[in-house]
């Protein structure tokens, strides 16, 4: 029996907002809600493309 090598675990994001989006996407995947998982990943990519704005990490505290 051949076994496939497991993919390495992804490095946890250093940004709190990236971590939040990643966790929400994983939770949606685990719940079987693929649409929500894609939505969270889109928000993650948009956040990353914006250069990790500091405001996103401290929203509501400013």
Oligomeric status of the shown chains?
A: single chain
Which stretches are poorly predicted, pLDDT < 50 over at least 5 residues? Answer: 56-62
Largest sheet: none
Alpha-carbon distance between the termini?
57 Å
Global morphology = extended
In which range does the helix fraction lie?
A: 55-70%
Q: Could you give the order of the helices and strands?
A: HHH
Structural class: mainly alpha
Question: How large is the radius of gyration?
Answer: 15 Å
**In DSSP terms, counting alpha (H) and pi (I) runs of 4 or more, how many helices?**
3
Number of strands: 0
What features would you highlight for this structure?
about 60 residues; mainly alpha; disordered C terminus
What does the model show?
The protein is mostly helical and 62 residues long. The protein is built from three helices and no strands. It has helices at 16-30, 34-49, 54-57. The protein is extended and about 45 Å long. The N and C termini lie far apart (57 Å). The model is unreliable at 56-62 (pLDDT under 50).
